[in-house]
Design brief:
Elements lengths: L11 H15 L3 E8 L4 E7 L5 H16 L1 H13 L11 E5 L3 E8 L2 E11 L4 H14 L4
Antiparallel strand pairs: 1-2, 1-5, 3-4, 4-5
Helix pairs in contact: 1-4, 2-3
Protein name: Roadblock/LAMTOR2 domain-containing protein
Organism: Kitasatospora atroaurantiaca
Length: about 140
C-alpha cells in the first residue's frame, strides 16, 4: 500500500501504465505504445498521439495475439525448438518487427511476463537500431510486471 510521501508496492496496472508512458516518451519517433495480455487478448494500456476508435485498438490486440500465438506460429515455434533440441515452455519468437507504408511496429515479449507483449509504433523514418535499443532498455528498466 502506498501512502502520501512514501513509495510502496505499485499495482500491476500502475507498472503497465508506467511502461507504456516510458515507451512513448523514450523511443525515438514513437507515435503510439501499448501493452497486451496474450492470455486474455486484452489491451491493458495504450498511449498514442492520435485518437483511435476502440474497435481499432481491439483489433490491434487480436492481431498481436495471432502474430505471436496463432496456430501456425505455434506450430513453427514447436518445429524450430524440436530441431534445435530446445526443451522449454518459453516461446521461441520474442520480438517481431512489422513495417507498413508509413510506420514501423515493434512487438516485444516482456521477459518477466512471457504472456505480455509491448507494442511500439514509430514513424518509418526511425533508426531501427535505436528503436530496438530504446524499447529493450525501457522494458529492462521496468523489470518485473
Amino acid at each position: 500500500m502506498s501512502t502520501s510521501g512514501t513509495q510502496g508496492p505499485r499495482s500491476m496496472s500502475d507498472r503497465v501504465l508506467s511502461m507504456v508512458k516510458s515507451l512513448r516518451a523514450e523511443v525515438p519517433e514513437c507515435v503510439a505504445s501499448g501493452v497486451i495480455d496474450m492470455s486474455t487478448g486484452m489491451l491493458l494500456a495504450v498511449e498514442t498521439v492520435d485518437s483511435h476508435p476502440p474497435e481499432v485498438l481491439d483489433m490491434l490486440a487480436a492481431a498481436t495475439l495471432d502474430l505471436f500465438q496463432g496456430r501456425n506460429v505455434v506450430m513453427i515455434e514447436g518445429i524450430f525448438k524440436e530441431r534445435r533440441g530446445v526443451v522449454s515452455d518459453r516461446h521461441y519468437f520474442q520480438e517481431i518487427l512489422v513495417n507498413s507504408d508509413n510506420l514501423a511496429h515493434l512487438f516485444l515479449r516482456v521477459d518477466s511476463a512471457d504472456e505480455v507483449v509491448a507494442v511500439v509504433v514509430c514513424r518509418k523514418s526511425v533508426n531501427v537500431g535505436m528503436l530496438f535499443a530504446q524499447a529493450r532498455r525501457v522494458l529492462k528498466d521496468h523489470g518485473q510486471l
